[in-house]
Amino acid sequence: MRFRPSLWLTIFAAMAFAVLCGLGYWQLERRAWKTGLIEQIAARMGQPARPLPQAIADPAEWRFRRVELSGVFRHEGEVYRAGRPEDGEIGYRVFTPLVRDNGQVVMVERGWVPGRFRDPAARPGEPPRGEVTVTGVLRLPDPDTIFTPGPDAASRTWFAVDPPAMAAMSGLEAPAWYVVAENGSEWPRAERPDLNLRNTHLNYALTWFSLAAVLAVIWLIMGFRRGREGRR
Questions:
Q1: Which residue, 116, 173, 184, 222, has most beta carbons within 10 Å?
Q2: Which tens digit of pLDDT belongs to each residue from 122-131?
Q3: What is d(CA 140, CA 138) in angstroms, rounded to the nearest whole number?
Q4: CB contact at 8 A, 93 and 158
């Protein structure tokens, strides 16, 4: 049985094979990066809460760390992020500026409220007044995508976290990081953030490598078929 692959088919197959294998190796690199990030998150969130410094030179060093800070909430500066439904209800994540003793403003994600409690006046109980201490996790905003809608200024609703712009709606200045509260009142309902990240890159890598293998088999079959037909 002769093997006579077509020159153009071989060139195309070689290029496609290289691309598919490259995508597979890229997914393996992404898997290693994601594994390291998950381990970093677990290590940082497993530590006791630390007092938040008055100034943070490198916010990335504090990302996912549990922190503790005190200040006074500016409830009139409350804004909302459209959130996923919970318990079968559409709801919002509530962000409120917290003014610290040194005048620094930190946007605090105080928790989730259902749509019926979006208006603070409709919530049971009173919002926290005076100086409060917040325990939470320091976060950096996730990058926007081209599919992320812009904020609705009229309803003070955001679809992506942007602490400086959120604070600016009330004439305040805030850093680009924010704190997700673990403690608070009944509404908004504060919870310790669930930062478990999906790590499915191995599955993607196996998919790309499988496609590369299928392409190689097709190239072999076509080469042997061409060789068999050439002998007729």
A1: 184
A2: 887 778 888 8
A3: 7
A4: no
